[in-house]
Write a structure and sequence with these properties.
Length: 138
């Protein structure tokens, strides 16, 4: 035994220290897990907290659902207005066709009116200059 201790004594001492530190680390982590669990005193308070959280969550969901419904109604109203405008344009085009007018020109005028009403930028189209034809008439 003496020759074994004299040959491997330092190694045995280091192994014992490492095992001791490992045991300490494991016991600390186990104690931390036990303290993080709710105790008997917290059991009476926990159901109240759970109920309050669930009520708050339900209220938040209800608010979000109402907001989503309002957005859907606004979108539907906008779509109805667009459909009504398209219907009016088709009626105007049909009436102009019945009168013998060109419906394409009327459609372009309607589109220009919509664009000028919708856009706030004041772009003025350049007037076409009278260019000479490349070929002579003869």
């Amino acid at each position: 035994v003496g020759s074994l201790l004299s040959s491997y004594g330092w190694y045995i001492l280091l192994a014992c220290v490492a095992i001791y530190l490992l045991i300490q680390k494991i016991s600390q982590s186990a104690a931390a897990r036990r303290s993080s669990r709710p105790g008997a005193a917290d059991a009476a308070v926990e159901p109240d907290l759970v109920v309050k959280r669930q009520e708050a969550l339900a209220a938040a969901r209800l608010r979000m659902q109402e907001e989503l419904n309002a957005q859907a109604e606004r979108y539907k109203e906008k779509q109805r207005q667009l459909e009504e405008e398209k219907r009016r344009q088709k009626i105007a085009m049909w009436e102009s066709m019945q009168e013998g007018k060109s419906y394409k020109g009327n459609l372009k005028l309607n589109q220009q009116e919509l664009e000028s009403g919708a856009s706030t930028s004041s772009t003025v189209p350049k007037p076409k200059s009278n260019k000479k034809p490349l070929r002579s008439g003869g």
